[in-house]
Structure formats: structure tokens, C-alpha cells
Amino acid sequence: MKIPIDVIPERAGHLEVVEIPACDRRTLPGVVSQRACLLYGARWMLAAIRDAVHLIHGPVGCAYYSGTVRKKNYRVFSTALGEKEIVFGAGQKLEDAIREAVSLRPRSSAVLVYTTCAVGLIGEDVEAICKRASASLGLPVVPVNCPGFGGVSQGKGHDVAAAALLEHFIGRAPAGPPLENSVNILGEFDVQGDLKEIEQLLQRLGLNIICAVSGRATVENMARAHRAGLNIVHCGRTGRWLARKMEERFGIPWRKVSFFGLAETAAALQAIAAFFNRPREAAWVEKEAEASRQRALPYLRRLAGRRVALFFGASRMGSMARAFGELGMEVVLCGSQFGCREDYTESRCCLGRGTPMIDDAHQRELEEFLHRYRPDLLVGGTRERFMAHKMGIPFLVFPQETSPYAGFNGFVNLAREVAALVGAPVWRLGNNGFMREEGEEMVASKYSVKPL
Amino acid sequence: MQLKEIPVTGIPYDQIKIEKVPAAPEYCERPAELIPSANRAVVINPNRTCMPLGAMWAVLGVRKAIPFVQGAQGCTTYVRYTFCRIFKEPAVIATASFHEDAAVFGGRRNLVEGIRNLVVRYWPELIGVVTTCSSEIIGDDMVSFIKMARANLRKEIGPEKADRIPIVLVNTPSFAGSHVEGYDRASRAFVETLATTKGEPNGKVNIIPGLFYPGDIREIKHLLRHMGVEAIVLFDISDTLDAPLEPPMSVPYYPPGGTAVGEIRDMANSLATFALQPHAGQAGARYLERKYGVRAVVGPPPVGVQGTDAFLKALREITGKPIPKSLLQERGRLVDSLADTLHHTMMKKVAIMGDPDIVLGVTRFVLEMGMEPVALAGGTASKTFVHDVEAILAEAGYEGEPPLIINGGDLFEFEEYLKKQPRLDLIIGNSRAVDISRELQVPLVRVGFPIYDRFGYQKRPIVGYRGGEMLLAEIVNSMLDYQYPDDRTQQL
Known about the structure:
heterodimer, A: alpha/beta, six-stranded mixed beta sheet, four-stranded parallel beta sheet, 16 strands, globular, disordered C terminus, B: alpha/beta, five-stranded parallel beta sheet, 21 helices, Nase/OxRdtase_comp1 (chain A), nitrogen fixation (chain A), Nitrogenase molybdenum-cofactor synthesis protein NifE (chain A), NifE-like (chain A), Nase_comp1_CS (chain A)
């Protein structure tokens, strides 16, 4: 089968139509990569821990950008390194900064110290400083070693963050018997209320969430996390490793599930109910799924046969591809910035041969794909959004900006929003302006958008 | 007015609203000695970002130019994300993708390979190489790397094609200065690299707008057009970062507009260079003056009546062209608006934050409205800021309580000071001040970089007389929204 777009020879293998694409490799320099850095990944994972001081140890820019994660604003502390510290060392400044931050925010339960490129290069012993500070302040001061140039992408940042959580926070409370009917959710970030939807469903099964890493993680509830009966892994990239380690350390079993799409949500709930040995309590699940399908039906009719291209972070590829399948849409591209082999294998299963999968696509490749294929929808992050718009292609931001997409309600939201997006007049206005009326041939009219 | 229900199935808004993580669960008295940022090692909510952003902003204003960032991927991603959020436009910026090996062995391979990949993928008309803290700390010898990249490129695509693409180096170590200085350095690097020959005078003026938005640059061009003055706008983002949607387009996609390389080459032959923002663009103007005798006119930002007057007067003086009736009428309309709304604006207490040039421009304008500044926070430390503010206050004959002037401090200091004020009516600043405005229950008028939480501000000017009218309307209306019940706003 033919590779659908031009790729630079050095990137051969990253775009596959049958196989699993090459992944976890370095990005080529000079291409307009969509990837981010270690610090970005670590912030993505840890930003929502609200009872900790987040101290970015590096130049002021890194702190400035770290103030926003998943479209939420956070208060960040920074050592704002200047030339003096770069030359003479930043250790003293870090010590002072930790002490001052805690005295300005006295009710904090921990301090997270993120390192950056600059600190990684000048070679400070951040670990020792944190240890000293921790002893003198009497609260955990945790180094998160995430200089931007480490690893190949932000994925490594997730791993570093997960390791820091496991090492310093998870299960720090005294051991005890498993709390009854309690679960943790690993790899759930509570985007626009997703977690609330999931929680409501779990509550109907009679289950409580101790902590959700990291959409609803606090120093206090992570300390109790080792007393859960089950770990539910939602986002695999961030959750799977943690789940394995927690199984090793505390003997907590885990299940990888997804709450995107009706079938997946239903299967997830049934698996969880089965685990707690109460299949009868999941009797409503099928009915609820069917009811939601009925609610979504008017939108599904409008979406049948439409073509969608997916490009976003790693492990949600597979489950989102299935969810879009349930919308009746055809997935014509599935890609990610930093997927690992496991992620691609998983999503290949629900895609079938012939659907291109792409790893670490850069701007030019995406442009070319959109230009040639003109899918009816591209799903991705903010950086791809405006490129798609310039080409007149509807775009859905994921992680989403409006309403929850997880759970049964979330599926209806997704259907409704996608239908509204794809059918919006603006795309017709963009494509059929005066040019058509005046009989001018458009540059690439053979790729014209399907009329509605 | 708050929406209680989201428009689709699910959870009500008040349960998913954007959470501000407060400094403490409830407000507590801070140790007073730690409030001024000068007394602290820690910076809380910085009011500035790093130099590379300013340089990338500049490069994106050049026609078919792509910034190449010599650093880790995040340095590019974060800035692209920031630009996308502000301008709602794609921002094509290439990264050298530093990994551990670059940190150890230096970034030569990344630059040489990167320039080659960038060229064969995108065929840009100019590449702006922007350094970061990592490449500066490693001590990359960028000048020789660029030579190697050029030699390599000649081998790959032939000397003719390779030499057609200028490469401009902007040194921007992120641990010094701020985005404002990054732009300033870019302005100098571009003229130094490209405007190398003094030839026939071209009768034009150079404009280095600084970190103004596309709408502002359009307004400046409007003023120039009415004056009948031809200009070279260096870093003209008015079209590149506000491009029309007109698919289908060719690949690779380049937005229309931008300053052409030829225009930049011609800048040594102009009558004068206007650096509209003294902190962002002065370096370029001064260089041209020193080297080629092109007169430098630095500031003030053309915001408000006197700011715009100063710009037009300087234009008149340099080009000898009169200020046309049409612009005088625009001026008259702005002054009329000032008079019509004076009863709303006078004696109102205002706090202003942002980049120093924006703060200076806006301060002068609010003094024209009869407002009383309480605190003025410039995010980038500057040698002249405090003096400039004092000069503006003196010029306006301001007799109220002297405002707190924060020169390069953080937002924590600004916020803590405002919390102690007995009265505050308005905050003018960028989106970073949203939390402060919510916490203090004071309206925020958005101005400057960055504005990502509202739409349209990048298209709406604050400069010129017409921009002044828009900013004035925004200021008055936001105070009305906050302070007056509906029945009292029927006849204003």
C-alpha cells in the first residue's frame, strides 16, 4: 500500500499504513515539530496538585509558560535565574526561594521543584538542596528532574513526574486494610469535568475515588492511595507505569479501561463491576448506553460516513478512534506526537490495515495530509487548530474546551459538538466564495469539500 | 452575570469553572518584608517571559520567514502555543530539537542538519536563528555553525539556491532580559545583517513598531497613508499574524504579507527610523543612526492624544508633509470622546501592568482622561522606566498620591499592593491580570501582550486617534458594567 504523503527520507518508518510506525525516536532538527519538552510533560502531569508549591527552578520564561496547563491558570513560583546565577551557581537562590515560597504560602503540604535546561546544564545538586530544605522545613520538598532537553518528547516528562509521585507521595500514610469499594484513577486529568462524569458512573456502582492522578490529586489523598482496592488506568501513557509499580509495591490490581465512547464506557464499567464481584450492580449499564445512543442519534445521522483525522497525545488514540467509529465516522489518519509502541499497537487493532498511522508528524506533513485528503474533521491540539482553519477544515480541540466527553453523557456531548462543528456554515463560506460564482477555477478544486 | 448551565448535556458551569489556585486557601497576612520582589529570591507569577519569544515574534513579521530556535523542543512549543492563543493563527517555528547529546557535545549538528531540513521542507525566504539559554550556556559558536550550515546547504541544493536564503542570527539567552529585549535585539540583528549598504535615499521612513498587535500596525499604516508617507515597517505582523481564511492553499502554507527582505536591505537609505516602543526596537534604530546616519526617533508609543501627536509631529518634521485635515478630525473626535466621558473617568483609581512601553503609553492616556494611577507595574526591568513615569506624571501636572512604580517586579507584588488600597476602580493590563481582577472584584481592560482569554484584541488598535477612541470606550464601558445598575446607564 502506498504512503499517502511525502515524507523526508530520514523520517521513513514514522508513517505506516499497515505496520506500527517507528516511534520513541528523536525528532529531526529543523522540522516544525509538534512535540514539547520534558518540563512541559511534567507540568502536564503535576500542575493540578493544588496543595503543593510549584517552583520552577530556571529562567523566568519556563515559569511564565508553565502557568497555563490544559487551559487552566496556575500560580507558579520561580527562581528566575539570571546571568549571575548561571555563572556562579543557583544553589543558594534555590534554597532561599524554597524557604520564601513556603513562608508566603504557609498552608502548603509540599514543594515540587522542577528543574529546567539551564539548571541541568550548570549542574546543580538539586536533590541535595531539596533534601536539606525538606529537613529544615518539615515538609516534603520533591525534586522533579525535567530539563527540557532530556528524553525525546514530553512523554518522558510524564514518566519523570509519575516517578516523583510514586517516590514521594503515593502511599505515604500508614498502611491499613484496603478501604472498602475504593478505587484510584490513574491518568485522568479532569478536563472540563470528565472526572465528574466518570465519578458519577462509578458511584452508581457503589465505588468511591480516593484520588485521581492528577486531576484530583492532593498530597493528602495520594498518601492514602495505597489503600484502594483497584487502580483504574485511564490514560495509559501516564497511568500504566504507575499502576504496575503500585501493584508491585502495594499489591493493588489494575485495569486499563477507557471512558470515551459508549461501548468502551460500558465495557469499562462492567469490567470494574466484575472485579468487585458485583455484576448485578452493572445491570443498568447496557440500558444507559443504549439510551445515550438514542440521544445521540440525530447527530450520528449527520455524521455518517464523514472522514476524521486524529492527531494528539499518545494513548488516547485507540480509544478515541473507537469513539469516532461509534459516531459513524471513518478514521483516515491516526497519529500522535509521542506515542510508544504499546499505544500504536493498541490503536492499530481498531484501525485496520490501510489507515495511515503517523508518529511525531510535523507541521508540513500535517498540512500536506490535509491538503490532499481534505478530511471532514481534524482532531488535535491548539497548535494544529489554526493551520486546519486556514485550510478550511473543521477542527476539534482535544483535550476539549467545552464540555466533558467521557462517560455516556460525554459521548452525547461529543456527537453533538462534532455534528455542529462539521455542519457549521463557516466551512461552506470559506470554500465557496466569489471565486466559484465568477467561474474561476480554484487551485485544488478536485479536493473540494463534500456539500452538506 | 454567570452562566449556570453549559449548553450541552453534563455538568453545570459553576462546578467546572476554571479554578484559580490561591496562594493560600484563604487570604492570610504575608510577611511584609517579602512582598516587594526586590527582597525575594523567589518570583511569583512573573510579568514577563524570556527573550526568544520576542525574537520569534519579530521573525514572524518578515515575509516567508521561519524562526529556527536553537534549543530544546519546549522553547519552541511553548511560544507557538502562546502565539496560537493570542493571534488565533498558525505559527510556524522550527526547533533544533536539543536532546542530551546536544547538551553534551553542543548544538552544531542540530543547527547544520536543522537548517537543511528546514530549507528542503519549507523553502523559506529567510531564516531567523534564535538562541536560547541552553545553547548560550553550552557556548555554541553560532556564527561559525551558521557558516557550516551555509556550506552544507550549498553542497546539497547548489550555491545559487542556498545563497538566496539569508540567515539572521539573534542572540537571546533566556536567563537575561525578557521578551521585550528579545524583540529589541532582533531589530538590531536584522538591520545589522541585512541593511548593509548605504545607497540612494529612498524617501521612506522606517517604522519599528515593537510588540504591538496586527490591529495597531494597521492603524499606524493608516496614519502614514493619510500623511502621504511611504514606510518600511520592520516586523510587519499585520498580515502574517492575521491572515484570511481562503482555502484551498498550497503547501507549505505561508501567510500573506510581512516585511520583504529587500525592504529591510533598503532601511539604511531611509529618512529616519521610528522606534515606536523605546524598549522594543530602539537598538535597531540606534544602530542605523550610528552607522548610516539615519535619524532615530525613539518613542513615545503613539497611544492617546499626546502620544499620537508626538508621532505625527515627528513625521511632519522629517518628511516636511503637513498633517492632513482628516487626521485632525480624527484627533478632534478622540478629544470629543474624552470630554463626553470625563465624568466617568475623572478621579478614578487605576492600576496598570504589562510591558514597560505599553504601561508608559497607557499611563499618559489615562492621565489625559483625568484618572489617578495607583500602581504601575512594568514587567521588564528598565533603566529609564521610573524616570519616564515620573516625567509623564510631571508633564500632566498630576497632583494626587504618587503611584507605586514597580520596575521589573512580579505580579504577586502588584496584587498584594492593590489588596491594601482603600479604593481601586480599574485594572488595565494583559490576561495575566485576570486572577487579580477577579480577586479584587475590579474590571480589567485588556491591553498588551499577552491577551489570550478574549477574542479580537489583536485586531483592535490602541494606537492612533481611532485606537484611542476604542480603548477609551473599552475603559468607560467596563467600568459602567461593573459599577452602575442598568437603570442608571440609560442616559449617559
